[in-house]
Amino acid sequence: MTLVSSPDNIRYNGTGRTYAGAVDGSTFDDLGDLESLTFGMSVTTEKVKTNRNAAKATILEVESERDATVTFGLREMTNENLKMSLLGSAINTLNQSADSLDMVEKTMTDDLYVDLGKLNIFSTKITGTITGTIAIGDTLTGDVSGNTGKVAWTEAGLVELIDVTGAFTTDSELTVATPGAITVVGIEVLEDPVVTDLAAATIRYVNGTDYSVDPDYGYLRKLSTGSIGATAFVSCDYEAVEKKYIWSMSAGSVTKKIIFVSDKDDLGIRTRWTFHKVQINLDGEFPLIGAGGAILSIKGTVLADTTQASGQEYFKVETIG
Q1: Are 235 and 123 within 8 A, CB to CB?
Q2: 312 lies in some domain
């Protein structure tokens, strides 16, 4: 058939979507927005040269090996993408339910962090005028909301609460069962634990002077220039957090069926590429810190899928009118 020159035959690279699934499966994950997707193919040959004259001319070239690869850059760090690219065997769940730490004793070392074991920690500070007696361990109740909180620290003009059941924004006064109350002047939710010297606390240590904290990941550091001794007692609330984890490099190898479909609105012919069996390999470095987007570079080797018909074991390219 004579080729008729037409811009419709010229593919403009390019956009599209890429899917990955089990080699023998019929359901697929969307790999999301990719940095790139490249197909490569190489053919290795051996040359046979004549020995009849000094020219040593090539008289035969024999194909000895064929290799095909699919290379792509993952932009989206989904659990399935990480499991595939980091050779994980499973996605595990270890969710954190909202709760509190109440006077948990921690052994401290100068200028080193300890792990509180919780994410997204905070405490609630109420300022105002205290009447009667409020003590550490008391439960305060909002006069309007009915919400409660347990006192982790108190001093003139303030209380710090944990195990808070809700917001106190509608309340004008918080009271305890025994005579004692604080009129509400200010309410602050602080990304800061209550750090004290004893369970029956006499000293409230100061953030930035005695310790520093990473509230998002729950790391607490004793500052050598501060007043914290060998141990400290920590109280705080923490949020509910969905946590999943992957034991990476625990799978011997990962193989996937990879399908690429070009965007129909791109210039040029529409195509669909189906790679029946691709062995996934992380290719190069993955920047955990650095400028720009974090890209997982993947190089997959196209393997023969022997469950396919003879001559159809590797991949299929479809052009769609």
Answers
A1: yes
A2: yes
Same-domain pairing of 110 and 220: yes
Residue type, 284: G
**Token representation of residue 126:** 């109420």
The string of pLDDT tens digits covering residues 131-160 is 999 999 999 999 999 999 999 999 999 999
- Please write the tens of the pLDDT for every residue from 47-72: 999 999 998 999 999 999 989 999 99
What are the distances in angstroms from CA 23 to CA 79, 119, 140, 176? 19, 38, 59, 64
Give the H or E element holding residue 37. strand 34-49
Q: Which residues contact 13 (CB under 8 A, 6 or more apart)?
A: none
Is 294 a residue whose pLDDT tops 90?
A: no
Residue recorded with tokens 């004893």: 198
Query: Which structural domain range is residue 82 located in?
Result: 7-91+247-320
Q: Are residues 135 and 229 in the same domain?
A: yes
C-alpha 236/C-alpha 99 separation (Å) is: 9
Written as six digits, the tokens of 40 are 């490569």
